[in-house]
Sequence to fold (462 residues):
Amino acid sequence: MQEAKVLIIGLDCADPGLVFDQWREKLPNFNRLMSNGVYGRLESCYPAITVPAWSVMLSSQDPGQLGIYGFRNRADYSYDKMSIATGNAVKADRVWDILSRAGKQCTIIGVPGTYPPRPLNGYSVGCFLSPSAKSQYTYPPELREEIAGWVGEYLVDVPNFRTEDKDYLLKQIYDMGDGHFTVVKKMLAEKPWDFYMFVEMGVDRIHHGMWKYMAPEHPKHEPGNKWQNSIRDYYEYLDRQIGEILAMIPQDTVVMVVSDHGAQTMMGGLAINEWLIREGLLVLKDAKPTRITPFEKVQVDWSKTKVWSSGGYYARVFINVEGREPQGIVPQAEYERFRDEIKARIEAIPDHQDRRLDTRAFKPQELYKTVNGIAPDLVVYFDNLAWRSVGSVGLSDIYTFENDTGPDDANHAQQGMFIMHNPAHSGNGRELSGLNIMDVAPTVLDLMGLPIPVDMNGKVIK
Fold:
């Protein structure tokens, strides 16, 4: 059995269509790894969003098993109590937990779901959820001072990626990337490791901030604009950084390049709570606001409300169930029939030109092996994520082409990417099919000579 060193290069939101097809010849280091290894589209979890996707990838457990359905989750069955899914919400072992117990040296940098940092056999640098470099975002704690000595103030995330100042946005993204890659290379060179993983968030931030400038199909695209090549230029920057990293590692290291989901043009937003109000399923105590107002700030008449939702890249739809919610009115005996009815009605919502959307509303019990925590009653992808879910109320229509949380050009896509180069086994550039995000963790353990826990869902990618 092979007992290799493994390096995982994580690129949040990196899109396989851009790397595998559109720009492959402009990305020599991505291309080299693909040509000498294997690659393929990686089916993400439902929902295909950063939190929970990276934890799903590294634990090989689905969001239902983890009890994490997004960045914010219902803490109980009240109407307003939410919890933030920091690293403390992840109770399952991730690969570095298993490897640490087996005596393997692990370094993890910026992997979503790793703040606050936990002890491991090695080093941890917190993710984008770290409040700032002033917080205790490293393990061991003294690593924070080393990083400050290398880069000054370490940017855990882009300070403001929802901005209309695009030159400023690009500067933030590159400044963050330069600092991150300096730390990645320093720790590769100076710290012992058997397993090394980092995740760069800049890809996600540039997609959300700059996609309309690149994509001709975007409703707001302007041909010949000054930022038309900004995303391609950034992928070329990443390729150069990856080339420098590959030159530093032992030749027998297995290298993976992965993303948690892809990206696509956001065609518009569907104001789900506006639709529920129109359908008489959500009732407000006062007159509907005349300006865009976050759902949390409106007064809901729960004694007359059957359904409400939260917005985001997908919609989480909740049913006000009698005996479950404090003022529930949908009888438990009618719950499944009513849920089927709402599912069908949501899936039938057309677009603004009365054309059919490829909308799918999923029941958690259909998606997950088990449902822990408090899951939405329905997980909704509007037009297969080409349309965003807008939770705010006060819009003049159920359709909007402005995001309610600031400028955003892209939505997520269900398939991320997977590239693996194993020097011991040339893949001859084969493109693999049927890959799942939960396959990554068992593949790492297999490469490093460890047994795969029975509660992992994924398979070993050969």
User: Anything to note?
Assistant: The two ends are 13 Å apart (CA to CA). The longest strand covers residues 415-421. The CA atoms of residues 37 and 303 lie 59 Å apart. The mean pLDDT is 96.
